[in-house]
């Protein structure tokens, strides 16, 4: 049970960090013709993307790390592939 909770927490933290980085990426915003935003926390959030994986390895949860690695990859691609909400046409 602790492995499942650790994996879920790690995936959630990584997913939130990836969503923030995607929403504030200057090149992505220009490509979708959105106004620029101030990107204050890019480096700390980028570190936060990988911190759960390091924590899982440090606590010896190899299975949770492998699951986190796969989930972070797939969810990261899904977030990046999605167009911003304000540019979609009804």
Average pLDDT figure: 88
N/C terminus separation: 43 Å
Which overall shape is indicated by the principal axes computed on the Cα atoms?
A: elongated
Give the DSSP E fraction (strand runs of 2 or more residues): under 5%
Overall structural class, as computed from helix and strand content, comes to: mainly alpha
Q: How many separate domains? A: 1
How are helices and strands ordered from N to C? HHHH
Task: Please state the CA-atom Rg, rounded to the nearest Å.
Answer: 15 Å
Number of DSSP strand runs: 0
| Poorly predicted spans | none
User: Which percent bin holds the helix content?
Assistant: over 70%
Number of alpha- plus pi-helical segments: 4
Largest sheet: none
């Amino acid at each position: 049970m602790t492995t499942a909770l650790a994996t879920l927490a790690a995936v959630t933290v990584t997913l939130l960090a990836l969503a923030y980085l995607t929403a504030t990426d200057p090149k992505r915003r220009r490509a979708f013709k959105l106004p620029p935003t101030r990107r204050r926390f890019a480096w700390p959030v980028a570190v936060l993307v990988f911190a759960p994986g390091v924590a899982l390895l440090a606590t010896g949860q190899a299975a949770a790390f492998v699951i986190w690695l796969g989930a972070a990859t797939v969810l990261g691609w899904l977030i990046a592939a999605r167009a911003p909400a304000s540019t979609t046409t009804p």
